[in-house]
Amino acid sequence: MKKVLMLAIAVLGTTAMVNAQTTPAQTTPTKEVKASKHAKKKAEKAEKKAEAAKTEAAKPEAAKAKK
Fold first, then answer.
1. Is this model's pTM higher than 0.70 or not?
2. How many CB atoms lie within 10 A of CB 51?
3. Calpha distance 39→45 (Å, rounded)
4. Residues 1-26: pLDDT tens digits?
């Protein structure tokens, strides 16, 4: 009787393990969407770049004037 009970447990355990739902395959992670920058900040950044370019252009001229 003990052997029959152990056999039944082994069969049921094996069946349960075979039919167990496996974890789903990993899907590719979704890319995070970056927040769009405000137009005002973009305009300020563009102005700063333009000013920096102007000062860079003015520096060589000032050096030439001193000579």
1. no
2. 10
3. 10
4. 999 999 999 999 999 888 887 776 66
